[in-house]
Amino acid sequence: MTLQTGHNHQAAFTALQERLASPLDGSPHPRTVLVLPSFTLDPAGMAKIPGVMHYEERLLSFLHLLRAQDRRLVYVTSTPIPPIAVDYALGLVRSLPAWHARRRLTLVDCADASPRPLTRKILARPDVVERLRRAVGDPRDACILAFNGSPHERELALRLGMPLFACGPDLAHLGSKSGAREVFAEAGVPSPAGFGHLRDEDDLVKALAALRARAPASTRAMIKVNDGFGAGGNALFDFRGAPAAGGLETWIRAALPRRVTFATAPESWERYRARFAEMGGVVEEFVEGADSRSPSAQVSVAPTGEARVLSTQDQFFVGAGRQTYAGCTAPAHEDHRRDVHGLALRTGRALARKGMVGIASVDFVSALVGGVRRLFAAEINLRMGGGTAPRMFLEGVADARLDEETGSFRTPDGRPLCYLATDRLESEAYRDLTPERVLDTAYRGGLLYDERAGSGAVFHMLGALPGFGKMGAVVVDRTTAAAHDRYRAVVAALDAAAARPPGQAAG
User: Fold this and answer.
1) pTM, whole model, 2 decimals?
2) Which terminus of the chain is more exposed, N or C, with fewer CB under 10 A?
3) Residue 392: left (phi > 0), alpha (psi -120 to 50), or beta?
4) Which tens digit of pLDDT belongs to each residue from 323-348?
5) Closest CA to 190 of 73, 344, 326, 79
6) CA distance 331 to 203
């Protein structure tokens, strides 16, 4: 498969985008939304995520778009989604008759479990493209709601004659690690000291030496490849033992192979060095301080150019250097919530001025430095992030929106809600659990989300259970502390269910 490129191709896409309407603004238009949950990202980073294909199920969180009574959704995946997962997700949406919504939902799959990104599978299958075209109907009142926008998503949009609600590939450089530093500078958003647009190992050595000279007390530096996915392109360099004066670059060059710790395994300096030379990257100060946190925000930019913050959250990480995303609590902690909201909005507006549309995430680092809490913008992801699906599930089950005055999520009657979300609710023992057993266990334990109580657990990625022993969960409650307690109860109940033979009821 060869993608079309060139000025005429981009001009045709630009013309197509002129009729784009946001599917998230509450309007009944576009009447048809094609949900495209393709992770069209760095293959090296994607290969490190167990069960990554099942992440396609996360965008069932957008089923609340069917609240618009005449709207139709076409949802395409690599392989069929388990029917119980679809029925369950439809039943979650508040004030939406599932029988009515189900007849306005069309599921299409490629019957292809290969590791290629979904959009590439679709483009290689003219029969699937035609099925999508027939399912969509009139493309003039439709759009593609995509996880991210690459040249492949642009190609699919052109083949279907449908505009794309995602950042176009011509602006992808804004989401690179070097490009993000430029956007932050333009928006007046603080970011860690560092250097971007590094091309190879020589640039990397010089940048590390310059960073060390600027901050001699620093013990570590962050290295990132420009287009790495998640933490897949991140590494930490340890300065301890470096000479105080003279020979610093020589010492760094010799130390790199043994003093780099990779955020995700397996990795080696030789492979990483080759990726850095291919993509380029940045070197940044590793922000260290007491009570270090990793807040983030989701922003949405409409075709009108209006930017708004969808959510703030505090992320939690696992792995080397705590760099691998494992989940979040939302909204972000009150001691930095408003600052995160304000800086993310400034970033979103800067992106809007450059023509970006769709959903993006802005990641920050927060720490007490010299007794003062400092907040630095770390990167921009021009795609849906780990916080997107939980935020959309919350809107679906509770019709909760972000109150811009307080930064809290509130239901229509004013109740505040919080949640804990993870894509990594996993255990080897969970391979023996079916989606039915998970939902039955949670139901019997009074742990499923209850609209009347405004609390409980929402499960997703249930298709990953048999092969990978993992799933996702969004646990909603009135406070973050209560959500943590409820999450622990969910894990205990699932662990107990996994320890019982199938068919044996809880004692």
Assistant:
1) 0.92
2) C
3) alpha
4) 578 899 999 999 899 999 999 999 99
5) 344
6) 39
